């Protein structure tokens, strides 16, 4: 792909990137539902629109893509072209994540982040292990949790 791409072409390319209903998110949703959990999806009533909210447990679950949230794992690599653009964009995402985290915690929500590398790539965990850990966290009393692949 050339370095110089017009806005219309870039917009069409970016429109193919899912913001919700990703494969990792669907796996988590199906697995938690099968384990008896009931949740809401992408609720606009909760700051940051978490991927899943479990009101009964006052828990918010985010299934983060390692690239889009600059996770320090083997799935993240800074693009070689338009580096300054990507650095600024990804830094804004990280900053927004921190702000959302702060607001949710202040409002009494518990937060679990499940990273894409936990479910994808050479250091992924067994999906049942990810779901077991997520289940334990939801039923537990920890304010924050994180599930990532083995390399992290």
Descriptors for this entry?
alpha/beta; globular; 5 strands; 152 residues; Endonuclease, Chain A; five-stranded mixed beta sheet; 38% helix
Structural class: alpha/beta
Determine and state the CATH class: Alpha Beta
Query: What is the ordering of alpha helices and beta strands?
Result: HHEEEHEHE
Overall shape: globular
The end-to-end distance, rounded to whole angstroms, is 31 Å
Major sheet: 5 strands, mixed
Helix coverage percent of residues?
Answer: 25-40%
The low-confidence runs, each spanning 5 or more residues with pLDDT under 50, are none
> How many distinct folded domains?
1
Mean pLDDT: 90
Number of strands: 5
Main sheet: strand order: 1-2-3-4-5
CATH architecture: 3-Layer(aba) Sandwich
Q: What is the tally of helical segments?
A: 4
Rg computed from alpha carbons, rounded to a whole number of angstroms = 16 Å
Q: Output the CATH topology.
A: Endonuclease, Chain A
CATH superfamily: VSR Endonuclease
Strand residue percentage: 5-15%
Structural overview:
With 152 residues, the protein is an alpha/beta fold. Helix content is 38%, strand content 14%. The protein contains four helices and five strands. α2 crosses α4 (127-139). The protein is globular.
What is the topological layout?
Elements: H1 7-15, H2 23-34, E1 40-41, E2 52-54, E3 59-64, H3 83-106, E4 110-115, H4 127-139, E5 144-147
Parallel strand pairs: 3-4, 4-5
Antiparallel strand pairs: 1-2, 2-3
Helix pairs in contact: 2-4
